[in-house]
Structures are given as structure tokens and as C-alpha cells.
Amino acid sequence: MAKKLRIDKLLAHMGLGTRSEIKKAVKQGKVTVDGKVAKDSGLIVDPAVQAVAYEGEPVVYRDVVYLMLNKPQGVISATEDGRERTVIDLLEPDDRLLQPFPVGRLDKDTVGLLLLTNDGQLAHELLSPRKHVDKTYEAWVLGDVGSDDADAFASGVELDDGYVTMPAELTILEKAEATDMDREQAGDEKFASPIRSLIRLTIREGKFHQVKRMFESVGKKVLTLKRISMGPLLLDEGLEQGQYRELTEDEVELLRAHRGIVKTK
What residue stretches are annotated with the RNA-binding S4 domain (predicted)? Predict the structure, then answer.
């Protein structure tokens, strides 16, 4: 439940103007509370139980936001950057008001599910290395991915820096003939292969470039990578790359229940 706060702060928080602009609007009689004109911009209101309107339009207050983004290629998972386009740049101005941030990171060329929120507690729970939240990806890999690779991933593989990964679940979905473009994209003769494989991989940690490095450890090269789930949250396949939407209440509760977070009242 939202806390009580000054009406000028509430309206400013919702992007309806600066505190001074709202103070002026109150004096002009543009703000009502429970149908009555507010006379004091410092009036304390409880947005959970009182009806606030600005110029006749109801103001629905919220102090947390949860957005599901289908991240496109070429965009970085950051709140700001002097040179690169960020995932925040994809949001409409109204959806930036509560200053959401990406929960974790996807590489610049990786697409798919990215959660944006300003709920620091939930983000911490989902990202904590001790929590081991499942993250599932689909990828096209240059190479004939087989049962030996699945067994290796299930045991944990050693990355290029000596780190041994936690057990991961690898499923081979499809195989196809590799193209010259695939081999060119791989950029290294040691990854040359006549086969490319479509796979699904679930990991429980988030090391730098982990999926790509896991496949390189078994002599194969990731060509495309897409995250399709994080914990119980599944990518909405109706979202085109670059599109986003708010999470439903059920999705938020699923995330909270998954991490054992008690909903604040």
C-alpha cells in the first residue's frame, strides 16, 4: 500500500509538473481530492484510499514499476551511456519517471527478456549469486551440439579463466546446415563446422558472457542468443524486439513468491 505524502510531491512524482508548477495549479483550483478542490499544496493525502484528480483527470499513483522488455540487438543494458543507446532510451518518457533500471545485463548483441524495475529489494533477490535463479536461453550455435556437450554442461565446464560453472541443462532442439555467413560470423577457423544447432540452455549464475564462453569451452561458437525466461518470468512472445509492457499483478507476485519476498502492506 502506498504511503501518505504531500499532494504536490505526489503529482510531481507522477510527472504532472514541478513542485512550483503544481503549487500554482493548486492555487488555480486544478487539483481535487475526493471531489473537493484542494486549497493547500502541502495537503497530506493517502493515494491508496483518496481520489486525486488533476484538471479533472484521475491520478493513479504508483511508486514502483515493473517492465518486461524484449531487448533488441545493439542496445546496452544500462541506465545511461555517453555513446551507446541504452534500454532506458527505449522507454516512453512517462515510463522513465520512476527511474527503472535493468535487473542484470544482457550483452549488447543478445536479445530477449530483460526486467526493468525500481524495486531494489526484488532486483537484489533475483541477482544475488547465492540465490541461483534459473535463466533460460535459446541459441543458434555453430557446431554439432550433442549428448557429450549436454553431459559436460550437466557436470560443469571450465571457462577460459579457470572458473568451473554450476551444472546447467542443455537441450538440443534442431540441427541445420551451416552457411558461409555462419562461418564468417564465427570469425575463427577453429570453430568451422558444416552443422549449426539450435539449443536451449538453463544456467543458474551470471558470469560475464557465460553462455558464449561455455560453448567455446567445448569447441563451438554461439551465433545468436536470446533469453526466454528468468525464474518464473517468461518472455511474452507477443512483444517484438524493442517493445515492452508492464508486468501483470500475477507476474509480479510470481517473482516475489519465487524469491520468498513478503509483499509489503
Answer: 5-65
